[in-house]
Amino acid sequence: MKLFVGALAVAMLAGCSTFSETFGDRPRCGAHPYCGSSTDIELIKAATDESAGALRALVPLAVIDLPFSMVADTLFLPYTAFHTEPVQK
Length: 89
Description:
single chain; mainly alpha; 5 helices; flat
């Protein structure tokens, strides 16, 4: 039963980077293609720094979230491509 609840929790949290970056109130990069996946990758990169501290505890979650975020980012690609703001010169 505990395994089922754990698997269900992981499945429900999967892709959370994509949803928080695309639809959140304070996104890091907003509605840009593959922003959720890039957030996971940046978190994993930042955890390799010697001064990462407690950030290292989030690495397993980011690694688990990454493939699900990639799938979710791909599914939301038409939305993010349409809502991407043009670059101002």
